[in-house]
Structure formats: C-alpha cells, structure tokens
Amino acid sequence: MILGFSSHGTGRGAGPVRYISLGTKWDGTKRSVAPALLRGNARRTEKLIDSIERKHKYTSCVISFTKEEYTKELAEEVLKEFEKSAFGELDSSSYDYLAYLHLDTENPHIHIVVPRVNLETGTDLNIAPPGSQRGIWNLWGIVTRDKLNLEHIEESTLDILPLSRKEKRMIDRGFLSSMSMTQIKLEIDNVVRENIANGLLQNRAEVIDFLKENGFDLPKKRLNDNSISIATETRNIRLSGGIYARTENYNSATYTEIERQSTIPKRRDKAIYISWIAGIKERYDKAFNRKLSYFALRYKSRSKKNETRNERELVKIKATSVLLDASNSADKPSASDNFSYNDNNKMKDNSNEIEAQNRRRTPRFS
C-alpha cells in the first residue's frame, strides 16, 4: 500500500470528479471494471469545487495496493485511517470528499478528491500542504502499513526516472512523441543506466565524468545540486533524483553500496524493528497533534465563533456600563457636597432675612 498526491488542483470540478467516477478513461476507452463508489457524492463534490473562488480548489490523491495484498476489507480499513489523518477531529459535516475504487488495472487503487473548503467556516481546507507528502503523510504510510501488517515499500534508487511530474503526466497521456527534450533526456538516462548495469559506472562522480567525456556541457554551478544539468542551445536538460541526486559520500560510495543501505529494517530483526517503528510512531504523533492544534484554531465552527463574539460583546457592554457609571458619579455632587450646598444656600437666605428685618427696625429721623 502506498499513497501519492497529485499536483493538480486549480481547475474545474468536472476534470477530477468525472475521471475517477466514469466508466471510461481520459482517452475515451471503456474501463474493464466500472469504478465503485466508496465515499461521497460525485455531483455534490463537483459543485463544491466549482463554487470555490480561490485559485486552489481541490486536492486529489491515490492509494494503491499490490494485487497480492488487496482485499475489500483492507481498502475500507485504509480509507478509515486516511480520513482520520486528513481531517483530524473536524466534524464530518464540515468537509466533503469523494472516493472511488478502481479495479481495472494491475494494481487496485482508490482515487480521492477533496474540495479545499471547510463547509462551516468557508475557509481553505488543505489536507496536503507543501512538504506534507514527505512529512506527515510519509509517516502515516509507514504507521498504517505497520498497523495493518502490510509490507513496507522502499523505492529503489536505480528505479527513479529523472522526470518531472509534468513530464510523467504527459507521458501517461501518450504525448511522448511530441516531447523532443524529454525523449533526449530518456535516451541519455538509458545509456547511463546500461553502463551502471554493466559495472562501468559506479557512482555519481563517474556519471558526471562520463557525460563530460561524451561532449555534454555541464554547468559547474549545477553540479552541487540534487541534479545534473546538461546545457543545450534552447534550454537545459535536467537529470534529477535517483542516480543523479547528490547524496552523502556520493563521490566514493557506489550505487551498489547505496542500494544496500536500506532505511527500513526487516520485521524479522525484531528488536531493531520495534525500536525503529516506535520512533516513527512518535514522530507521526507529534506531527498529527500539531495538525490538530492548527485545525482547532483555523477551523473553529461558526457557532463557536458566534459564542466567542457574543462573549466579547457582553464584556464590552459591561465595561462600557462601568465606565458610564463612573463618569456619571464623577459629575453628580456627592451627599456631603449636597449638604454643604444646601447649607450655604440656607445661610445666605438667613442673612438676607436678618438684613431685611434690620432695615425695617431702623428708626427714621426727619
């Protein structure tokens, strides 16, 4: 079992949805076995994708099985594990995804399409941000294979072709005949691999010397990258990954030695395997908990947001009320102030009355 994400995600919903749900392939040929719906509703997912106004509208991926390990029950278990890791603790009403099982190829596989929107908040829901395929999703694959007792898959260095994702897609669609630069790249790669298989080239340094000796111009600034570039009149041909990658001790270690340095221990080496898988699980748990924390902050439901907003408004109202009370009490005379004010008025009234009485009692002399 292996998981891989597609680089597509900016077009309309009809492309990915109809590709995985219809009984015909992209070239119009009929599938020998019709796709089987496992999750979701095709029409709903297509409309959700089309309703998104952002550039990135959906995420798509494939979970592939070997024909020896595949069972219907296994596919269901893996899909449940995928859903847990993809959506965390989000309520099922806050996201949508579509899953179809394809059995018309040598390797049974599940196609998954996820609209990039949280249905409660309307914000972007990206289950596979940049770097996650080699991060949390790579760890998820190892942990899930261990949990379901599946064979761990490790890609051979010699099997990785120096092709970009775009080139792989174009070749899959049958456009190699119109891809002249890619054809040259594959011809060079084929010659290099033949020499490696015959023991004539042992490591990356010898591959570089071989290409130079055969008249290829290799820019020096590119030789320290994880690829080898060949300069041409139009544009550079980039040989990347696998035998062309700049790895540790790449100048001295042979390809045979690199192949032997497996990073995944065998289950039969029980003590080593237990220690290794425990470390992988710990790393995955930490990554998953970080994801849960991020989701909890970013995708807080509207109801909770309204509760928080109402709480803030209530605090604001109370604070305003307290300030108004304080302001009013500052302007209004106090009890003592009222007493003094009234007392002064009474004293003033009494003095006026006495003065009037004195004026009335004063005798007048003619």
Description:
With 366 residues, the chain is of the alpha+beta class. Among the domains are: 2-154, BirA Bifunctional Protein, domain 2, CATH 3.30.930.30; 159-260, no CATH class. Helices cover 48% and strands 10% of the residues. The chain has 11 helices and 7 strands. The protein has helices spanning 14-21, 42-51, 72-87, 136-147, 165-172, 180-197, 204-213, 255-260, 270-298, 302-331, 335-361; strands spanning 2-5, 36-39, 58-64, 98-102, 109-115, 227-230, 237-240. The strands form 2 sheets. A 5-stranded antiparallel β-sheet has the order 1-3-5-4-2, with helices on both faces. A hairpin with a 6-residue loop joins β4 (98-102) and β5 (109-115). The chain is globular, with a radius of gyration of 38 Å. The model is unreliable at 332-348 and 358-366 (pLDDT under 50).
Which descriptors would you attach to this protein?
globular; BirA Bifunctional Protein, domain 2; 5-stranded antiparallel beta sheet; 366 residues; disordered C terminus; 48% helix; alpha+beta
SSE arrangement:
Elements: E1 2-5, H1 14-21, E2 36-39, H2 42-51, E3 58-64, H3 72-87, E4 98-102, E5 109-115, H4 136-147, H5 165-172, H6 180-197, H7 204-213, E6 227-230, E7 237-240, H8 255-260, H9 270-298, H10 302-331, H11 335-361
Antiparallel strand pairs: 1-3, 2-4, 3-5, 4-5, 6-7
Helix pairs in contact: 1-2, 4-9
